[in-house]
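From the pipeline queue, job 12 of 40. The input is one protein chain; the requested action is below.

Action: predict structure.
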Amino acid sequence: MIVKAIRTRVFKEGELLLPFVDRYVKKLNDGSILVVTSKIVSLSEGNVREIKSSRTREELIKEESEFAMRTKYTWLTIKDGMVMSSAGIDESNANGKIVLLPRDSFKTAEHLRRELMKRHHIKNLGIIITDSRLLPLRAGVVGVALGWSGFSGVRDYRGKPDIFGRILKLSRTDLADSLATAAVAVMGEGAEQQPLALITGAPVEFKEKIDKRELSIDIKEDIYQPLFEKIKKIKLKE
């Protein structure tokens, strides 16, 4: 698998997304996956707010969240079925403004996929809209797929044997987020100006229709849920 970041000029607020992609992605081969950072999607939608005060930011976080709890360093929130900091609201590379998450990353991904397939005359194309996330007890961010199109986001091993013939009961691979992380690693988080990336040779199953809930699980079934309930009783080793 090859992941290549694409350097561009600075994307402007209110700019059309598809012509921008066309300008920097001259050729798409069948079986490619185009990765687009969520920030330029939000900028294209005008999903941006002025920072008038710290209160403005807090009000936006609560408004954008399904659940919001203030913690020592940030707001711990749930939005679109995902745990994230401050409802994904971002001030980095925003020129003094606040950039919210895209309104519907799955819809944007599907629109881009259909238009680009027509332009490049290909049958199999994947699109991923990415953002960055922190993992519990780990420093630094990884990529996450806010939305994707054109391929199955999960590989299911349940009911299949391992190398010793043992039937797997729980194993699944989160392909959408794994590919997002690979892309974010080369796209960067600072001044790289690489909001696009192209993945070739990805181990995915291309498909026309996807289930955008395929990676979602009930919070009561989350493997970390019991840990968080008892976190005050846990003393971590230095």
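Job complete. The first helix runs from residue 17 to 24.
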